[in-house]
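Need tokens for this chain, all 370 residues.
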Amino acid sequence: MKLLIAVPTYNEIENIEPFIKLVFVHIPSWAEILVIDDNSPDGTADAVERLAEQYPGRLHLLKRSGKQGLALAYLAAFEWGISRNFDVFLEMDADFSHNPGYIPEMLEKIQSCDVVVGSRNIKGGKVEGFSLIRNLISKGGSLYSRLVLGCPVKDLTGGFNMWRKSALEKIGLTTIISRGYSFQIEMKYKAFLAGCAMTEIPIVFSDRKKGKSKMSRKIMLEAFVNVWKMKGASGRDTGMDQFVKFAVTGGLGTITNLVVFFLCADLSGLPEIPVSVGCFLIAVTQNYIINHRWSFKTQTAGTGLSIKRWCIYTAGSLLGLAVNIIIMKLVLLNWELQYKFIAQACGIAAGMVVNYILSKYAVFRKRENR
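Here are the structure tokens for all 370 residues:
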């Protein structure tokens, strides 16, 4: 099994030599290192060329004409390695944030899976040297991506990852759209969609001690936008999508309820209680239809509307209303609030969650073909 360690560099003259020497201490004799340098003005490439004389046939340099970004560097490394029949690829930063001491464990894990992720976000993993704000951005980026994409990988944004060649072939490297920070997210998401067996091992991620970080606001903004592009390209409907659609549908139902009540009670002078009941039934029916055809369409595909499920949905809506009232009263009884609508908002949120769970797993659950 041939291992290629891909190390993209730009102005890493302070780190590159001690980093490479440390990596060679922790890797087997059949592993090789490829440095992909974007024409660093500080002489990083020259340092690698001099060091290559100490590791003949094991340390390689891929020079590029200018700064082209992390994603293209890794894609070039993967292409370089695949053409030379490497079986396993490891992504690493050259700033010592990725500890080479984890490589033996990653090699052990890759024997039984397709992708090994060095994770900061599972038990035993952590970051060192980050400010509170940067730590929140890092963890928030992974959480945001997981929620939007519906992907179970805990550390989607991390860059310390090992790949089998077969996993890279399943992903389809020519389909990668990211050019910056979102590259790591897209790679893992596509591996997940392709059915690759993935595992995470805990790592301690240390902030760089020398040199400057390449992270920028532009790169983070690109990641924020690209996550939605990935999601759109996949065509998947995640639980978060369903909940957002469910909430929008509930809002539309509320508008319908208020409009009908205004027309019937205010303009026509009909009694409020019968009108209120009628408004509730109209809004519930509207919500049932929209949820069936939009919010939960992936679960209801091939099935029609039914009186039975409408009745269950209506009962669930009444239960959600009851939860709303109970939570509102409990909040008012236990906390002194300046504004009572805060208690009502808590009740609405609790009622919505109850209603959503009943809708997803009882009313609109996917029926198995028999």
